Amino acid sequence: MGVNENGHRPLDALTVFQDMKLANQKPNSVTLVSLLSACISLLDIRLGESIHSHILVNNIQLDVAMGTALIDLYAKCGHIEKSLHIFNLMKEKNLQSWTVMISGLADNSCGEEAISLFTKMEECGPEPDSVAFSGILCACSHLGLVVEGQEYFDRMVMVYNIKPAMEHYGCMVDMFGRAGMIEEAYKIIKSMPMEPNSVVLRSYLSACKHHGNDVVCLDENVKNLLLEIEPNLGSNYVLAASVSSMSGYWSEVGDLRGAMQGKGLKKLPGFSWAEK
Predict the structure, then answer these.
(1) 3-class state of residue 52 by DSSP
(2) Cβ distance 41 to 13 under 8 Å?
(3) What is d(CA 267, CA 259) in angstroms, rounded to the nearest whole number?
């Protein structure tokens, strides 16, 4: 059917769905999963609920692919209770079902539940993969569980032989940064085998800014690297200027302001370049 792949609007997907019902053509599981994938991509909860209702009314068996798609839909739309309900109803689950549920819990600020489900997965489910560890590291970051997060990261590498990806390093930088452990966050960045992306760099600099005078940015080149990677994003210059001002580098603040003006970028409301 290709609804998601072709980027059709929700109305187009609904029209196809309704036309099939009017023609007494019952969509099979592949078609329903394709429709749900479109809903996930577009975060269209109304159409997703309509499809879910069709599944229930017609007593369609909830297979792994369909159940996982519904879990993902409700989680991404903020209805995490419905995701959990479907997950618990599923008689059969695969690796993706577990990882989508764990990541959904973590993304919806249900860190304790994510950790509990991850533990259950290790005990009686499939072996956790890279995505599952991303979810659990995210949960540890939001809960401030630094020791546990480091343990999960080490187990991922040492026990499961999973090579850390950018997202895993980003979770660790975010976790240490939230805890005010700027030196540890910086060590993670320096240990990365690849160049950090803008998300990782912003996370580190935001932590420096958030913790204010209690910390210092350990590497001024981090700001320059962020501006090299994303030179046309005004918020990057504002963030870099905030960190420079805390370090007393007011000439840099002026340079950043000039660079923004030269590129025609706008600063965020509420930020004063002259604030000391």
Answers:
(1) helix
(2) no
(3) 11
- In contact, 114 and 78? CB cutoff 8 Å: no
- How far is 168 from 231, CA to CA, in rounded Å? 25
**Are the beta carbons of 133 and 156 closer than 8 angstroms?**
yes
For the stretch 41-44, contacts whose Cβ atoms lie closer than 8 Å and that sit 24 or more positions apart, written own/partner, are 41/4, 42/9, 42/10, 43/76, 43/77, 44/10, 44/13
Neighbours of 53 (CB within 10 A): 10
Q: Give the single-character DSSP code of 8.
A: -
The pLDDT tens digits of the residues spanning 27-37 come to: 888 889 989 99
List the one residue out of 100, 185, 116, 118 whose CA is nearest residue 150: 185
Residue 148 phi, psi (nearest 5): -65, -40
Reference 98, options 66, 74, 129; nearest CA is 129
What's this model's pTM, rounded to 2 decimal places? 0.81
Q: pLDDT digit string (tens) for 164-187?
A: 999 999 999 999 999 999 999 999
